[in-house]
Write a structure and sequence with these properties.
With 228 residues, the protein is an alpha/beta fold.
Length: 228
């Protein structure tokens, strides 16, 4: 399978061993849209929220927050992101726990970067490669650039939270996203009332289209299928 299938994908590598991180990035990093490094689980979690990677590769034993604890937190935020573990053979028991929390694949150190690359190519072909999502005749969202554009390719100015909201709806399309999940994702450490959410969505509609976001009573919100 051709390596160019990877050019639309963002990878986050969480690894505290500098030599291993550099080895893997130098060997395969250029094939991807971006290949970001984090040196511990806490930094990995923070960067995951910012760059929204398509694939995460992580070590297990790391300072501040180990790979499995980080993965549990990531899966609570977005359980669709594949997580690949790099593990020492001595961590075999930990790998059994990794299966329980939804690890996609693991490689035992020392590993062959080409073997990792081959797996990533096969994984990428199964993932959603639609990085530019058409919201309507006049709007499209670029998931790699994390920006909304009009039909003339002009960026529509949105706040980070507004972009994150559209990203959340797009990832769940054509299904709706519950009010609870929206609040938890967008206002992680803040209290968000129903009124605050309605005001927030009203502001996005004013910037985009009144019919872009549809409310399904008792279920949540989705990108209106009438626009697509």
């Amino acid at each position: 399978m051709p390596k160019n299938v990877l050019k639309e994908f963002k990878v986050l590598l969480v690894e505290d061993e500098v030599n291993i991180a550099k080895l893997l990035k130098d060997a395969i990093g250029d094939y991807f849209f971006s290949f970001t490094l984090a040196k511990n689980g806490q930094e990995g979690l923070e960067k995951m929220k910012i760059i929204k990677p398509d694939i995460i590769i992580t070590d297990i034993m790391m300072p501040k927050l180990d790979g499995l604890a980080m993965t549990k937190k990531i899966k609570q935020i977005d359980d669709s992101i594949p997580v690949i573990v790099l593990s020492a053979f001595s961590e075999k028991e930990k790998l059994l726990n990794a299966i329980d929390i939804g690890i996609t694949k693991y490689f035992i150190k020392p590993f062959d970067p080409d073997e990792v690359l081959d797996y990533l190519i096969s994984l990428a072909t199964k993932l959603d490669k639609k990085k530019v999502f058409k919201l309507s005749e006049d709007l499209y969202f670029d998931r790699n650039k994390n920006n909304l554009f009009d039909k003339n390719d002009k960026i529509i100015n949105l706040t980070k939270r507004e972009k994150d909201f559209l990203y959340l709806l797009i990832k769940s399309h054509p299904n709706s996203v519950s009010v609870e999940k929206i609040k938890k994702t967008l206002w992680e450490r803040e209290e968000a009332t129903d009124e605050r959410l309605r005001t927030f969505i009203k502001r996005i509609r004013a910037k985009t289209s009144k019919t872009l976001i549809k409310n399904i009573s008792g279920q949540g919100y989705l990108i209106s299928p009438d626009n697509i």
